Here is the input.
Amino acid sequence: MFSDRTNWKLAQNRFTLAIEEARARGEKLLDLTASNPTRVGLQYDAARIVSAFGSPHVLDYDPQAKGLLSAREAVADYYRDEHGVENADAERIVLTTSTSEGYSFVFRLLCNAGDELLVPKPSYPLFEFLADLQDVKLVPYPLIYDHGWQMDFPSLEAAVTARTRGVVIVHPNNPTGSYAQLSELASLNAFCQSHGLALIVDEVFLDYSLDEKAHASFAANGEALTFTLSGLSKISALPQMKVAWIATSGPRAETDEAVARLEVIADTYLSMRSEEHTSELQSHHDL
Here is the structure.
């Protein structure tokens, strides 16, 4: 009755079971895997957040396939003000409800059924579910450790095939916490140009570097077609604020066509309603 693409092992893993059993016994735990910032004692400006939902404009339906312009302009301002991306353009930004939805849009844009994407290993297990749902095959490439984590370009070259459509980068990576280095960018762009591939870059934790240093955003990359994914929920540590986006950059002709196709995909799934979150996006760095 059910499709093969949803034939997942759904049983809880041993770690989750152990945590639940310990809590049931009333044991005090310090769970370092906790990922919900609203449950770990962070203090929020509650009045300011709640007031963002008080706008009468939420009663008006103004469908815009890429998302409301005011919200997209706030995203462009974030890249300009926080990461120095001077050419950030609201017209090349598409809003989604989550980065997962953003991945699905980009996977659909780039891949026919059975096409391949190169993904880092180790990396986030969510990719496997997203790829299954989009009928995409994931091909891993290793991250190697030598005075820090880095991409293994010989392995990338060995992994690419005629069905490869793009390279996924998590910046910073989960679980290593490592960022793609500026020294790797030229090699990445050359690799993508030589094989006709796109870059798909997850930057949801870009602002959370352990060394407290600023790291460049791929949204400024203009040498290869690049889709940079991020969202308000991670930037502001507010997981209930479901506004995310795809920022497209790269060669002009490829970027224009990609954005036009993404707009049709977004319009097919109906417009993202996000005006009520715009003021929070504009002031995320004050939270």
